[in-house]
């Protein structure tokens, strides 16, 4: 919860009610506070329309995140279509910090130990993920199976 300390008398009408501007301001502050909660299960379906039509298994990625203050922890997963390659992530494979509607996350692959740094942005109930750089190369290189970018939904 965000608490704002201010002299509310500056936002009152002569009849003791909040002005319309004040109501909108406080509503925007409250909405922003709610919008920045990264906690939850975020998923994306990576299958092409024809793969969905044939009901192909797997072909998805996601994050399971828990936010506490400005810290984010959790896990991730990614599986290619028909489950040919799977990265189950696991507890503690996502660590990060929140500033406003963005979180900088470090994502560790349980396939090869690679660590990717990326930015998650919350906007209108959608988590926009963009991997920015590989912080630690895995062994073998290139086998990390971490989502590079996408729009994830709860």
UniProtKB/TrEMBL annotation:
This is DUF3617 family protein. It comes from the Bacteria. The keyword Signal applies. It comes from Massilia eburnea. Residues 1-33 form the signal peptide. Keywords: Signal.
């Amino acid at each position: 919860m965000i608490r704002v300390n201010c002299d509310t008398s500056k936002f009152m009408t002569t009849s003791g009610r909040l002005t319309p501007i004040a109501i909108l301001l406080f509503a925007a502050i409250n909405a922003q506070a709610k919008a920045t909660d990264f906690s939850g299960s975020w998923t994306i379906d990576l299958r092409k329309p024809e793969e969905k039509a044939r009901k192909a298994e797997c072909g998805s990625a996601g994050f399971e995140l828990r936010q506490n203050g400005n810290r984010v922890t959790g896990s991730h997963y990614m599986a290619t279509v028909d489950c040919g390659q799977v990265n189950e992530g696991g507890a503690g494979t996502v660590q990060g910090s929140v500033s406003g509607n963005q979180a900088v996350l470090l994502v560790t692959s349980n396939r090869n130990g690679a660590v990717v740094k990326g930015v998650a942005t919350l906007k209108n109930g959608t988590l926009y993920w963009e991997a920015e750089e590989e912080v630690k190369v895995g062994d073998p290189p290139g086998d990390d199976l971490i989502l590079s970018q996408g729009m994830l939904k709860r």
